[in-house]
Design brief:
By secondary structure, this protein is mainly beta. The strands form 2 sheets. Strands 3, 4, 6, 7 and 8 form a 5-stranded antiparallel beta sheet that branches. A 3-stranded antiparallel beta sheet has the order 1-2-5, with no helix packed on it. It has 1 helix and 8 strands; from the N terminus they run αββββββββ. It has a domain of 102 residues: Immunoglobulin-like. The chain is elongated and about 65 Å long. Helix content is 8%, strand content 62%.
Length: 157
């Protein structure tokens, strides 16, 4: 391994840049099984992975504008108007799609996985001040920073 190969290896370790990971889905109907597709484009060096996996989260968010907040500053009671936000994770899933292997440099790979949300999962909704949505991320488990697709909001009907 030459000097520049070592530098590239260190960069990939830190940044997760050893591969580009993409995630998309079939049409999703709440309460029914759906399919996620993971596509990977490996950079110019072989990549040893321990597994391919997908994470899915249900997130409930609330945002209330124009809340009158009372606080104390220098012994004086003060008021200000704020936007109050809160978030809660309602569902967490992690699914192993494939086991460890070596992905060859400059090659493309594709996996699909069928997903079913738990029976107690909340349905998605969007209200005036709150919403519940689902997001997913595909990742390659490898030494260093795992290359991933980033979080993608799932469009659930």
């Amino acid at each position: 391994m030459g000097f520049f190969d070592k530098v590239k290896s260190i960069k990939n370790f830190i940044t997760g840049g050893a591969a580009k990971v993409y995630l998309d889905s079939s049409e999703i109907v709440f309460g029914e099984q759906f399919e996620l597709r993971i596509r990977v484009q490996v950079d110019d060096a072989d990549l040893k992975i321990d597994r391919v996996y997908v994470e899915i989260e249900g997130i409930e968010e609330i945002e209330v504008p124009d809340v009158d907040v009372i606080y104390e500053e220098d012994g004086e009671e003060e008021r200000r108007i704020e936007i109050v936000r809160a978030e809660s994770t309602t569902t967490e899933l992690e699914i192993t799609v494939d086991d460890g292997q070596v992905l060859n440099a400059n090659e493309k790979y594709e996996w699909t996985v069928n997903v079913e949300l738990p029976s107690d999962a909340l349905p998605p909704y969007r209200g005036a001040y709150c919403q519940h949505s689902y997001q997913a991320r595909a990742s390659l488990d490898c030494f260093g920073n795992d290359p991933d697709s980033g979080w993608i909001e799932l469009d659930i009907n």
